[in-house]
Amino acid sequence: METLEFIIYPDGRVQEKVTGIIGASCAEVTAAIEAQLGQVLTHEPTSEFFTVQVQQSSVANTQATYSDW
Q1: Which of 15, 16, 26 is CA-nearest to residue 48?
Q2: Residues 4-30 pLDDT 10s
Q3: Is the dihedral of CA 50, 28, 34, 18 positive or negative?
Q4: Burial level of 26, CB count in 10 A (0-12/13-18/19+)?
Q5: Which of 2, 16, 57, 60 sits a CA distance of 20 to 30 A from 28?
Q6: Model's pTM, two decimal places?
Q7: How confident is the model over 26-55, as pLDDT tens digits?
Q8: What Pfam families is this protein classified in (predicted)?
Q9: Is residue 15 part of a domain?
Q10: Are 54 and 43 in contact, with CB atoms under 8 Å apart?
Q11: Residue 45 sits in which domain range?
């Protein structure tokens, strides 16, 4: 499940935590929000940021010709 968590501190700082989004696509999800919040001071990527999605192929190789022996 994809979640965005925001912690707003009394001094006005906002901490944003993104979970459930694999890879760098979290930056695309949060870009518009960060633009409205103001200056971004730091980024701390989580382990999910460095995760690579693996796609498995279900293609099977079949032999189209048969030998005579």
Answers
A1: 26
A2: 999 999 998 999 998 888 888 888 888
A3: negative
A4: buried
A5: 57
A6: 0.61
A7: 888 888 888 998 888 888 888 888 887 666
A8: DUF2997
A9: yes
A10: no
A11: 3-50
